[in-house]
Amino acid sequence: MRFSFTHPMSAGAHDRRLVGREGLTRLAQAAEAAGFDAIGFTDHPMPGSRWLAAGGHDALDPFSALAFCAAAAGRLRLMTNIAVLPYRNPFILAKAAATVDVLSDGRLILGTGTGYQKAEYRALGADFDDRNDRFDEALDALIAAWTTDDLAFEGHRFVALGNTANPRPVQKPHPPIWIGGNSARARARVARWGQGWSPFPTPAAMAATARTAALETVDDLRPMLDDLWRRLEGAGRADPVDVHFACSAGGAPGDGDFDAEAHLEGLSALAGIGVTWTGVAVPGDDLDRTLEVVQRYGEEVISRA
User: Fold this and answer.
1) Residue 153 host element (H or E)
2) 242 has which bridge partners?
3) Cβ–Cβ under 8 Å, residues 249 and 216
4) Alpha helices, H only, the chain
5) Separation CA 208–CA 216 (nearest Å)
6) Which range marks the domain in which residue 214 is found?
7) Contact 279, 8 (CB under 8 A)
8) Which residues lie below 8 Å from residue 35, measured CB to CB, with a gap of 6+?
9) How many helices (H) and strands (E) would you count in the chain?
10) How many CB atoms lie within 10 A of CB 201?
11) How far from each other are the two terminal CA atoms of the chain, in whole angstroms?
């Protein structure tokens, strides 16, 4: 099992030091020292105010923040969790991602998704109703831009005829692409394009808002994984595919009653059904508390897992 956490600005109200140079440097270095394998950043360039007021969160630009973390810590993998592909021209996104991979000596994991906020789509001039087809075309365009000189790519929305983008990513043939989402369509995309699947814990009451399938327990996840394995086999895929999921057993690491033993048992259960990465929730209300929780989780869980 490998361990990631998403920058805790995603928790809503946060310590402003978390988005400053010193605070982010301390956080990245503390996470690396604690044994975490990756730091992630969400993607909300222009979220809707109503969503923010209802408990949503703002975010740093993921690619800029990950490039900063590449310099602050020398081992951590750098994860977009997740980049909403339909928000951007895929060739611009390919350049941003390749830049992070080059500057980090090959540590990028490109977590991707379609997103679900109509207000954000509208603000960015992206077609919400076309997001799924646009997402699929963007994946083809990304891979083509990363791997092909004198590119001849002609999609329905994006065209590159006689173009070349350098420098190429360090990782070959390209950085791992993880597909986010709980739907069968997300798993079909993993089988076609992906090196990882990132389902999201989603209570049934939230599933419609997030426009994804409900997913609350290990028992909910197990049939989804069985479906993923069947799709990978049907696609003739023999290469390893990562699965990234949160472990709720034992409570939240930042809570006073966090039970490390129960959490370790939960991690073992997830590993037993094929989960290879877990996303850890860390608090963001106070930088010192964030750093303390990161260190304690490393001692109580990562060092023993």
Assistant:
1) strand 151-154
2) 196
3) no
4) 21-34, 49-53, 62-72, 90-103, 118-123, 131-147, 184-193, 204-210, 218-234, 260-272, 287-297
5) 14
6) 2-302
7) no
8) 3, 298, 302, 303
9) 11, 10
10) 18
11) 7
Q: What is the pLDDT of residue 213?
A: 77
Q: Once rounded to an integer, what is the mean pLDDT over residues 9-32?
A: 90
Q: Are 132 and 139 in contact (CB under 8 A)?
A: no
pLDDT in tens, 228-278: 999 999 999 999 999 999 999 999 999 999 999 999 999 999 999 999 999
C-alpha distances out from residue 282 to 4, 12, 73, Å: 10, 12, 18
State whether the Cα torsion 9-14-20-22 is positive or negative. Answer: negative
pTM over 0.85: yes
**Are the CB atoms for 117 and 48 separated by under 8 Å?**
yes
CATH number at 170 reads: 3.20.20.30
d(CA 191, CA 237): 7
Other C-beta atoms lying within 10 Å of the C-beta of residue 291: 18
